[in-house]
Amino acid sequence: MTRRGQLVLVAATVVAVALVPILFASLQLGYHDDVRSTADYDDDPSADALRVLERAVATESASIPSQYAWSANDSAVTAVRTGLEPQIDRLQTSQIEDGIHYNTTYNGTAARKWKDANCPSGPGRQFGVCVADRGVVTQDRVGRTHVLAVGFDVTTTTERGETTVTVVLETSGRSSR
Fold it and tell me: What Pfam families does the record point to (predicted)?
């Protein structure tokens, strides 16, 4: 082997040895180029929509007990849905310039499941019967209609794709997904 060949072999060995720490460092960091950063989760557009709906549900349900007797429960549910309609319509196009579109529909099944899990039945209950009607859960409390929760499906469409979230928003400010 010529002196030049030996020099090339030594240079290649030095370069290979220099690359070993870089290989170990990348394995320790767990680098993967197809992973979403935490920033992507912080600005989740579905979370923004749920916050808007949460405030709207709390606002719309606050005046219902003073306006509707339990015998007018059907009218109270209609009033809640009618009151939420402008906020839902505004939400639909609120971030369209940013490439975000929301489609919000009531989820009667989620509301019924919430009612079954959260409204006690039998003689030991503190308040009257609960009813899930058109996605809105109400309860008879001393002859007045009280709104307890509203079930929604929120579909968020962005340039990254479409996400659907089913949520039941309680008037107490809590939510369950």
Answer: DUF7261
CA 126 to CA 177: how far, in whole Å? 26
Determine which helix (DSSP H) or strand (DSSP E) holds 165, and give its type and residue range.
Answer: strand 161-170
| Phi and psi angles of residue 126, each rounded to the nearest 5 degrees, phi first | -80, -35
Contact 127, 140 (CB under 8 A): yes
For residue 155, give Cα distances in angstroms to 97, 151, 162.
17, 13, 7
Q: What is the DSSP string of 62-115?
A: HTHHHH-BGGGHHHHHHHHHHHHHHHHHHHHHTTGGGT-EEEEEE-HHHHHHHH
Taking the C-alpha atoms of residue 10 and residue 28, their distance in angstroms, rounded to an integer, is 28
CA distance linking residue 165 with residue 64, whole number of Å: 27
108's tokens: 């009667």
Q: Which backbone phi and psi does 55 adopt, to 5 degrees?
A: -65, -40
pTM comes to 0.72
